[in-house]
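Incident review: delayed structure delivery

Summary: a single-chain prediction request sat in the queue longer than the usual turnaround. Root cause was a stuck worker, restarted by the on-call engineer. No data loss occurred. The affected request and its eventual output are reproduced below so the record is complete for anyone auditing the incident later.

Affected input:
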Amino acid sequence: MRSFRRVTLPLCLSFTAMAALAEEPAPLQAPASQVAGSPQLRVQLSASRRTVLSSELAGKVLELDVKEGASFKKGQRLVTFDCAVHRAQLTHSAAAEAAASKKLEVARRLDKLQSISVSDLSQAQAEVNMARAQRGVGQVMVQRCAIDAPFSGRVAERKAQPGEYVAEGKELLAIYDDSSFEVELIVPSHWMVWLKPGHRFKVRLEETAQEYPAEVTRLGSVIDPISQSIKVFGRITSNDPQLLPGMSGNALLAPPQS
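Output delivered after worker restart:
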């Protein structure tokens, strides 16, 4: 029994040591991006200015020549409606205003001769005001018969076709400004110590496999209490015709060197 204990005790100790060595965790290593000194953060490109043009009146679309992906200039006519009825109503309103103005002129002459009552003079003036207001409404409706581009850019989506009758408020074109792009990313909130508007960094996009200069424009106003992170917004400072909304990649962001 004594010899058995002398043999088995070292074996048990040896097995215990081997198990301890096997369970010992490997030394932690920093991520490759941190080792390189430039943390990489996912970003997505979006147009700085984008909007959806909608119909301000009910009617038939006469012209809608721009197609998806087409470029346009600021002030260019994009959509035209059939507004024969609205133009006719404007003509009628202008004629009614002219007639009311002449009636008012006659009433004022009679008033100087004291040949008209005060109420009749007031009525003539009211008719002029009503006719003028009606003409103003007609002018606004005629102005809505065409939609011009509010800025230069490209068409993202066309949602109506020429000859289609659309209701008021119907979406017609989704457009964006292709000269200015924003990027959005999420960073640790403790980076606010050094990350300020104007901080310059680079963005590498997967679709073009190129790097673009960028700068921080503003920081988010809320910190996520769970992840302790904050949104950061920036803009691409170069103009490249290859850039499109929705492109994604990495932001190469690092603290300023002292």
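Verification: The chain has three domains: 32-48+180-252, 61-81+148-175, 83-144.
Action items: add queue-age alerting; document worker restart procedure.
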